[in-house]
Amino acid sequence: MTGTLSDLTPGQSATISGFRDHSPVTQRMMSLGVLAGTDVKVIRLAPAGDPMQIELLGYSLSLRRSEAALINVEDVR
């Protein structure tokens, strides 16, 4: 299954396959280690569903759902 990081629910994992665009936001995420080939897991969503907490490379990161929608994922498990 493929989609975006914002499509995942807590407990689901996937592999980042790239970005929908190359804006300053995606450049910032890349500098934080959000890179193609990296495994990511959704830990939890805020009560209103935004932001979402993800885990990658041994640390946690909070992203807005709009930012997560820019990240393509594959191999959802």
General description of the model:
The protein is α+β, with helices and mostly antiparallel strands and 77 residues long. The protein has one domain (3-72): SH3 type barrels (Roll). The chain is built from two helices and six strands. It has a six-stranded antiparallel sheet.
Shape, per Cα inertia axes: globular
Q: Roughly how many Å apart are the termini? A: 9 Å
Approximate helicity band: 10-25%
Question: Largest sheet, described in full?
Answer: 6 strands, antiparallel
Outline the secondary-structure elements.
Layout: E1 3-4, E2 13-19, H1 24-31, E3 39-45, E4 52-56, E5 59-63, H2 65-68, E6 71-74
Antiparallel strand pairs: 1-6, 2-3, 2-6, 3-4, 4-5
In a few lines, what is going on in this structure?
The protein has 77 residues and is of the alpha+beta class. The protein has helices at residues 24-31, 65-68, and strands at residues 3-4, 13-19, 39-45, 52-56, 59-63, 71-74.
List keywords for this structure.
alpha+beta; SH3 type barrels; 77 residues; 16% helix; globular; single chain
